[in-house]
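SUBJECT: A protein chain and its fold
Encoding: whole-number codes for local backbone shapes
Chain under study, with its fold:
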Amino acid sequence: MPKYSYVAQDAMGKTYKDTITADSREKVVNALQDGGYIVLEVKESGGKAGGLLGGVSSKAKTGSRTNRKVKSHLLAFFAEQLSTLISGGVPLVRAISLLGEYSSDPSLGYILVQVSKDVASGSSLYSSLAKHPKTFDHVWLSLVQAGEVGGQLAATLMQVSVYIKSQDAVKSKIITAVTYPAILFIMSVGVLFYFVTFIVPVFATIFKESNMELPAITQAVLSVSNLITHHYILIIVVIVGAIVGFNVYIRGDAGKKNWHYFLLHMPIIGNFLQNMYFERLLSTLSTLLKSGVTILNCLSVLEEAFASNVIIRDGLRGAKKDVSEGKSIADSFKDTGVFPPLMTEMMRMGEESGRLPNIIDTLAKFYSDHVNQFIARFSAVIDPILIVGVGIIIGIVVMSIFMPIFQMSQIGSNM
């Protein structure tokens, strides 16, 4: 039988190196794990390394792929499986090492290797995860910290999984709702661009040679065609300049605030965005509170989580300041002027009844229902609107070409 050299750690972080004879590398790994060791490396004498690190690509070993973002559904699966293993009595270090070894994502596998090493050396799971902020955000870290402090890590990790899955479900519905309209719109624009830039100029030459008076609609289409075909460089410059100028504007504090305010208050879409933001805020707050996170820490986490929208972020920052000064949660949210009366009054009821997490969870479901209703209606309405709109535009272009042709045929028949 072949000989394998291995490197392993016990639960206290002590490293062991030795050689063992076995039928296969897998049997070496299983034997060491059954003995409670964390397998760091297993390789056949003179062969390629395997084991916990061997299950990850060489790029992941060196850490060169850890900058790649780990997909959220993999993080949800990791939280769920880690919760299951811990609930089943598997030691934390071994549970993390097992999930790292069999992870389908090299980046996540490498990160879990590092986390298992840190935990085995005596670090808390919270501090070990905090070393990888690009993978584990503030919500993750706060929930894990609360679970460790309260002795409910398994339950908290399951809440993390449920939270991530619920957020992914909303994103998936939105992507599904806009995918077909986006494809239809891009294809329609492509067809119109081809028609206006290649087909219309041919007829423009014919009409010019006929010296006939063209209908107003035909003149308008020919003008657009002429602008696109002869001044496309100017058009590109204007578009690029507008995009660059807009990006520069919204990078400033005033521009960013104005833009985010416009997004939240624009017709139809603004109401949907508000409902989506409020649903995410409330579901996150509910999850944090149920896990035992203090309200001030909850607001700090939410402030970081909503850094991409300065209106919501500033509202949360103001609410946190008021809460820290002794104001009630409901009054603190109400005084910001950002959050709707329904939310603040329901929070007041939750505070007075001592059932704030449950009330917030009910509110989150309320806004989630509104988001789902909008997505369903959007999917049902946008398709026929796009089809009719594109049909009208194409009809105008076609009519602008055939009207002069019809006039020319009438003139020819009269002669």
Residues 47-66 have pLDDT under 50 and may be disordered. The beta strands are 3-9, 15-21, 38-44, 49-50.
